[in-house]
Write a structure and sequence with these properties.
Length: 317
């Protein structure tokens, strides 16, 4: 089924044709057997999810890199829990789960990524952090390795400028929780090569994901739409228009959202929401993207949402 997904030429051609003339003549997706090993930077909820789908669905060996053993151990423990749950639900066999686990190797240095064919970076949403990582990857990785970033809003072109091979750099924006959400938004930067775009789309499809292609604008498509929606909900709360619970219930039951906007903000992380909203505001200069004062206050207080135990709601840690 996954191989069939890679060969879904018509769908892919339609997507690429819609975004820009530059990709209108992009060839049908080619075989990606040359992608033999994946590197993932960051073993938090996004990085771990990406490593999980690369190993469990694409059946590719993965090097999962984070700065400390404590971090990678924590990530791998979570992966074990995901696998156990999938086995218990008979989604996969115990043998498949064992195979998945064996495909993932932990590492605590970027130099471990010297043999991978694609790196997917899922470090924190900060341009300086990402630029430093990409500068190092430029020196460490094979010259033809794809350098992908899971940034949710930062310019791919800016991140690529930290390297000497901007043509190899691309955005590969997964949604949280990665094992569940079906979308990967793919964002070529100004200089991204067409073969890098095609390989990235094909790889995401082997992970069982549907792909969309977006231009390199602040927030791309997903967060250009989602963040103003979340921000408006926070502004309603700030203005005392309704309680958090009633805002969420309105959207959950009134518009069939799986989560209300404030629950979703807590789930994404209020620090991440604020960082994305600042990118939208600063990079467009448009006041309509101004983050609400209340969101800034919550982040200042260390109320980051579910991960810190408190956001718009309280959580048992
Ligand atoms: N990691 C892995 N799997 C998870 C998970 C996690 N963190 N959280 C839930 N799941 C799995 C559950 O294990 C369960 O799997 P099974 O079907 O195999 O049992 C499945 O998701 C459904 O979970 P639940 O039954 O516990 O709960 P639910 O039905 O309420 O679904 C949800 C949970 C999938 C998170 C759902 O509430 C949802 O879709 N919420 C919206 C999520 C969303 O909008 N994500 C995008 C955020 S934006 C983003 O990521 C981009 C960005 O740049 C900010």
């Amino acid at each position: 089924m996954l191989r069939t997904a890679i060969r879904s030429h018509a769908n892919l051609s339609l997507q690429t044709a819609q975004i820009s003339k530059r990709f209108m003549s992009a060839p049908a997706p080619k075989n990606i057997d040359h992608i033999k090993r994946v590197g993932v930077i960051g073993s938090g909820q996004m990085g771990l999810g990406i490593a999980y789908v690369a190993a469990n669905v694409s059946r590719l060996p993965v090097t999962l890199m984070d700065i400390s053993k404590e971090q990678t151990d924590k990530g791998l423990k979570f992966m074990d829990r995901l696998l156990e749950k999938d086995v218990a639900k008979e989604k996969i066999t115990a043998e498949h789960a064992k195979g998945t686990r064996e495909l993932v190797t932990a590492a605590n240095s970027l130099s471990a990524l010297s043999d991978v064919d694609i790196v997917i970076e899922a470090a924190s949403e900060n341009l300086n952090v990402k630029s430093a990582i990409f500068r190092d990857l430029d020196a460490i990785c094979k010259s033809d390795a794809i350098l992908a970033t899971n940034t949710s809003s930062i310019s791919i072109t800016k991140i690529a400028a930290a390297t000497k091979k901007a043509e190899q750099v691309i955005g590969m924006h997964f949604m949280n929780p990665v094992p569940v959400m079906k979308l990967v938004e793919v964002i070529p930067g100004l200089a991204t090569a067409d073969n890098v775009l095609q390989d990235t789309l094909a790889l995401a499809q082997t992970m069982g994901k549907t792909t969309t292609v977006a231009q390199d604008i602040p927030g791309f498509v997903a967060n250009r739409l989602l963040m103003p929606y979340i921000n408006e909900a926070v502004m309603l709360l700030e203005g005392g228009v309704a309680s958090a619970k009633d805002i969420d219930t309105t959207m959950k039951l009134g518009t069939n959202m799986p989560m209300g906007p404030l629950t979703l903000a807590d789930f994404i992380g209020l620090d991440t929401c604020l960082a994305i909203q600042k990118v939208l505001h600063e990079n467009t200069g448009d006041s309509k993207y101004r983050p609400s004062v209340l969101l800034q206050k919550y982040v200042d207080a260390g109320w980051y949402g579910k991960k810190s135990g408190r956001g718009f709601y309280s959580y048992n840690k």
